[in-house]
Design brief:
Elements lengths: L2 E3 L4 E5 L5 H15 L12 H16 L4 E7 L2 E12 L4 E8 L8 H16 L4 E7 L3 H9 L3 E12 L2 E11 H8 L1
Parallel strand pairs: 5-6
Antiparallel strand pairs: 1-2, 2-3, 3-4, 4-5, 6-8, 7-8
Amino acid sequence: MFSKIVDDEITLALVQPSFAKEYWVIVEQQREYLSQWLAWPQLADGEAFFLTFIKSSLHDYADGKSLTCAILYLGQVVGNISFNSINHGLKKVEIGYWLRQDYQGKGIVTRAVASLIEIAFNELAMQQVQISAAEENLPSRAVCERLGFALEGIISRAENLNGRVVDHAVYGLSRKRWLEEQQ
């Protein structure tokens, strides 16, 4: 099973059925917060919702289409991060993530995304990493900017977030630029 130790606080672990209960507890406690930037929390109605999500994610992982991991902070599930899509033909991945509100501000997402970038370029031989965030989601956009992503554009009317239509800021990081910044 895939697992990546990011540092002494954070581990990324391939989703597994045992995480369903922890995901459900997070959503029960933070549904309103998570629904600001994610459409699915409104649909989550119990552990079975997450078991279905995990089963689908594991199937896509086995097919090489995605990689979905729980973010563990000091051994506790606090969020999720993924290659939402792995496009082998274009040599491009798209990263998505979410984190409990009470764990924000600790650099958890920034460190987790940096780890996935490393996997994308070093292990999967990708040439581009992309992240899309609602234009108004400034914390998510700040993660992209901290990690050297370039704003590639704004896609208008990109997503319906529970009745609120938002534009997406699309960020990209090329392998070449990433390697230059590593020196």
